[in-house]
């Protein structure tokens, strides 16, 4: 039976998991990303991590796809890393091709947020034509599902919602620009606010203890306005909301939804938009990567009926 390996690479942790052809998951593992990314050759370190993981399972010979999820900008064909701020040594590298050669296995990759979204879409039962995912964690993740496929843009950089400019915001973003909304609407901003105003409070308890603080309410409202802007542009059937910040205890989800809906154009998308909460857990990124690997495999392999091999779409 074919197996698929999902590798979810984050700034803090890298997670790996196998899935068989019946979509049963096996062997979840989490390691510190710096354990391999901090080496002089991060690509070689990633190859060693994956190879060691496969050596520890009896399913290594069944793996037919490795799918990487990366929190950066990838080329439109999803073969080259264009910008990965926390591992700059991989920038402008054809990571999928190079890693495939090192492993002797087909390697594909996509933005990590698309794997979160693919997991959530697969839970809906019927795939919508148009959906948007917003996942607020350390940064502001954005996934675009248009016409039954993920939309990557002309150059691969679509969905950078966190980098739209916010009027009157003088903050310098790690991307190098000034005023990006992510500098004021992200887990990073919350962590900075905590250090300044609530040093003795656990990060997970911020909204429980300070949920009525004007600056945290303004944080939620900024997020709502930012999301509503994208809803008015794309007019999706579904908006999926998730990420670690939105899952925090006491987070004012009702206020966020109210803020989003208060800025939607009527009658549409105001009447037709369905807002759902993500099912994100610690394992979701690599589970979604496994499902994406299976999808890629089934779309690219010749069909048993003798039909021509389907061409992978480059939306």
UniProtKB/TrEMBL annotation:
Enzyme Commission code: 2.7.1.55
CDD domains attached to this UniProt entry: ASKHA_NBD_ROK_AlsK
Pfam families: ROK
MF-aspect GO terms: D-allose kinase activity
Keywords: Kinase, Transferase
Residues annotated as signal peptide: none
Keyword Nucleus: no
PANTHER family, sorted: D-ALLOSE KINASE-RELATED (PTHR18964:SF174), ROK (REPRESSOR, ORF, KINASE) FAMILY (PTHR18964)
NCBIfam families reported for this sequence: PRK09698.1 (NF007251)
Name of the protein in its database record: Allose kinase
Gene of this entry: alsK
């Amino acid at each position: 039976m074919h197996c698929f390996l999902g590798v979810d690479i984050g700034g803090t942790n890298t997670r790996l998991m196998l899935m068989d052809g019946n979509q049963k998951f096996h062997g979840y593992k989490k390691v510190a990303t710096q354990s391999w990314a901090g080496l002089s050759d991060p690509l070689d370190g990633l190859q060693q991590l994956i190879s060691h993981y496969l050596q520890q399972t009896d399913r290594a010979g069944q793996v037919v796809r490795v799918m990487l999820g990366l929190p950066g900008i990838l080329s439109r064909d999803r073969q080259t890393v264009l910008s990965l701020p926390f591992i700059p040594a991989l920038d402008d590298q054809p990571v999928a091709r190079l890693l495939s050669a090192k492993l002797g296995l087909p390697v594909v990759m996509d933005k990590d947020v698309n794997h979160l979204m693919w997991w959530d879409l697969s839970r809906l039962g019927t795939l919508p034509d148009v959906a948007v995912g917003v996942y607020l964690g350390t940064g502001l993740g954005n996934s675009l599902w248009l016409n039954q496929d993920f939309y990557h843009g002309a150059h691969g950089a679509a969905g950078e919602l966190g980098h739209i400019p916010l009027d009157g915001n003088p903050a310098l973003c790690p991307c190098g620009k000034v005023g990006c909304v992510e500098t004021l609407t992200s887990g990073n901003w919350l962590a900075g606010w905590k250090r300044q105003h609530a040093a003795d409070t656990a990060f997970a308890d911020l909204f429980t203890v300070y949920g009525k603080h004007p600056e945290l309410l303004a944080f939620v409202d900024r997020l709502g306005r930012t999301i509503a802007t994208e809803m008015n542009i794309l007019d999706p059937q579904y908006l999926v909301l998730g990420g670690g910040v939105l899952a925090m205890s006491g987070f004012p989800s009702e206020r966020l939804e109210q803020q989003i809906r208060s800025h939607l154009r009527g009658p549409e998308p105001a009447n037709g938009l369905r807002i759902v909460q993500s099912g994100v857990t610690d394992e979701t990124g690599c589970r979604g990567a496994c499902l994406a690997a299976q999808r890629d495999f089934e779309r690219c392999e010749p069909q048993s009926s003798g039909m021509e091999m389907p061409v992978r779409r480059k939306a």
